[in-house]
Amino acid sequence: MIVFLGASGPRVPFVLGLSQGVYRVGATPDGALLVAPPPVMPGVTSPIIRGSAARRPAALADFERDVRALVETGR
Questions:
Q1: What percent of the chain has pLDDT over 90?
Q2: What CA–CA distance (Å, rounded) separates 60 from 45?
Q3: What is the torsional sign of CA 52, 54, 59, 63?
Q4: All residues at 6 or more sequence positions from 42 whose CB lies less than 8 Å from its CB, including other chains
Q5: Which residue in 53, 61, 64, 70 has the fewest CB atoms around it within 10 Å?
Q6: Strands 5-6, 14-15: parallel, antiparallel or unpaired by DSSP?
Q7: Pairwise pLDDT comparison (2 vs 20), residue with the higher score
Q8: Each residue of 38-74: pLDDT tens digit?
Q9: Whether 73 contacts 43, CB under 8 Å
Q10: Residue scoring higher pLDDT (18 or 58)
Q11: Eight-class DSSP state of 75
C-alpha cells in the first residue's frame, strides 16, 4: 500500500485528499507490481467515470515515474 501523508506543524499526520492519498499495490501471477486504482494526474480534462474500463491498474514503475514528475514540477 502506498499512502501520501500531510502534516501541519506538530500534529498527527493525515492522509492527503482523504482516501485519494491511498493506493493499493498488488502483484500479478508473473510477479509484476500494479497500483490500483491508477492516479488521476493534474491537468486531466476528461471526466472520471466510476467503473470505466479505462481505469485499469498501472505498473508500479509508471506510478513512481508520474509521482516524481509531479514533485519536480511542484504540483
A1: 23
A2: 23
A3: negative
A4: 70, 75
A5: 53
A6: antiparallel
A7: 2
A8: 556 555 556 667 767 666 788 999 989 988 998 888 7
A9: no
A10: 58
A11: -
* Distance in angstroms (rounded) separating the CA atoms of residues 27 and 32: 5
CB 30 within 8 A of CB 59: no
**CA 72, CA 75: separation in Å to the nearest integer?**
8
SS3 per residue for 20-64 = HHEEEEEECCCCCEEEECCCCCCCCCCCCCCCCCCCCCEEHHHHH
Per-residue pLDDT, 42:
59
End-to-end Cα separation, the chain, in angstroms: 22
* Cell numbers at 32, concatenated: 509484476
Q: Is residue 69 within a helix (H) or strand (E), and if so which, with residue range?
A: helix 60-73
Residue that has been written with the C-alpha cell 471526466 in this structure: 47
| pTM of this structure | 0.67
